[in-house]
Amino acid sequence: MTEACVGLGSNLDLPARRVVAAAARLAGWPGVSDLRCSRLYRTPPWGDADQPAFINAVAAFDYAGSPDSLLVALLAIEREAGRVRGGRRWGPRVLDLDLLLFGDEHIDSPTLSVPHPRLRDRAFVLLPMADVAPDLRLPDGTAVADAAAACDRSGIEVLESAQAAA
């Protein structure tokens, strides 16, 4: 079993419900156990600011499989939610699932980069990750809780737990 962290986000078509539903779908996926989901966060769009705010969360869980098989699962869950890839970079999304960490593995392939390359730059990932894995260490050795405490929280609002929104 490997501890994995996945970022969940949406800013289209009832985004809070989409994030909660994606977390539930992931919790039931083969090989996933002990899934813990953060509170929901309303966050300003990143990259392309001309779009609605996002709802973000992070799920941490144990996974019995490879990072590639987990990526296949994440892409399948996105497709089930109606995501069509190939749109505007950093644009609006019905659902976005990002593999942030997979144990202490470092992967740089054409299809997968783990740890997520912009993990340290994104408060919308660090804050929810601190909810579910505060003692987890980032690749530079910093505890997630410390990285979250140091990040810019401008425009970010805590909504509720993913469980309460269901």
TrEMBL record:
Domain of life: Bacteria
Enzymatic class: transferase
A Gene Ontology BP annotation from the UniProt entry: folic acid biosynthetic process
Segments forming domain 7,8-dihydro-6-hydroxymethylpterin-pyrophosphokinase: 89-100
Key words of the record: ATP-binding, Folate biosynthesis, Kinase, Nucleotide-binding, Transferase
EC number: 2.7.6.3
Example GO molecular function: 2-amino-4-hydroxy-6-hydroxymethyldihydropteridine diphosphokinase activity
Keyword Nuclease attached: no
Pathway: Cofactor biosynthesis; tetrahydrofolate biosynthesis; 2-amino-4-hydroxy-6-hydroxymethyl-7,8-dihydropteridine diphosphate from 7,8-dihydroneopterin triphosphate: step 4/4
Annotated Pfam families: HPPK
PANTHER family: 2-AMINO-4-HYDROXY-6-HYDROXYMETHYLDIHYDROPTERIDINE PYROPHOSPHOKINASE (PTHR43071:SF1)
Its biological purpose: Catalyzes the transfer of pyrophosphate from adenosine triphosphate (ATP) to 6-hydroxymethyl-7,8-dihydropterin, an enzymatic step in folate biosynthesis pathway.
Entry similarity comment: Belongs to the HPPK family.
Full protein name: 2-amino-4-hydroxy-6-hydroxymethyldihydropteridine pyrophosphokinase
Source organism of the structure: Pseudofulvimonas gallinarii
